[in-house]
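1st attempt posting a full record on here, be nice pls
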Amino acid sequence: MTEYKVLVTLDGSHHAERALAYLGVLPSLGASEVLLISVVDESEDFHALALPEAREREANLLSTYLDAVSADIAEHLGIDLEALTGKFIVMPRRGLDNTLFAAPYDQPGFTALLGELEEQINDLHINVLFLDNIAQTYAGREADRHQVTKFINGIYGCARHQDFAPVIMGHPAKVAGSEYSGSTAWENAVRMRWYLGDRLPDENQDEGEAPDPKVRVLAKRKTNYSEKDWRRFTFEAGVLVPDTVPPAGSGIIGHLYDQAAERAVLDGLKRLQEMGMHPSEGATTSRYLPRLLLEYKLAEGRSKTELVNAMRRLMVAGRLVKAVVGKYAGNRSPMYGLTASE
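the predicted structure (as tokens):
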């Protein structure tokens, strides 16, 4: 899955905020009209086809894909997708000019396509608009603060109704730790910025440590009207399933989340021991417990930082203890490792 930054302009709209707060996105769409404009990327070659036929085949391909995905999502959430008929509108535009904003000869402005988009938004009374992606729709200077701000403001201004949340998707820069590329206006001109990746953007990764391919993290990195938070997803049976207990720094929810991480450490330790391993608390050893949990896919979607913190809490509480677990083959000196006291 590609890493995206997600920019959401929220000005009186509660849809995007509600989506991240409760991730039951599809059920919440029943009262909303959603338009997705996307340039899909698939292996089939449409170049030899006439434009009307190409668009029809692409629409059918994307519709077939969405039907298959929707069936998995519906089964997981226990909802009836018939209720969403006409509520979720997909417009594939592969092979077409999708420029909404350009700056020829340093004269920035909107193209005629924005007028078409404005008509669709208002005729269908769209509440949530997804534009995929910035590289397709924005042809101005990515690092020009005024042009970026004008583009974002113009997209929001398409709707004549107040309950409207445009979501503009794009890719971060290639440099490690990047959350977006170009001007700071990509963050400052929006009400909220989301980030989707295989880990939190400020989470350190050890050399040689591979991320769990089934795990994705969606984080609110900038928000004007709510607290920053994030949710972790695990890909299961065709669905990105959010964690049952969302992460939190304190309170009952935070305690439950800590307990889940500690349970992952204890269960993983037991499995490693059954495999004949002797995990240790020493960060510089090859037997370091958090590293082994990640290496053998026993972390249950937890990051290394979460595993380390959970291991330390368990040691302080006396639920993990350092004990002799064997002897070294060379000199037969005692080998120390971690064991569960329960």
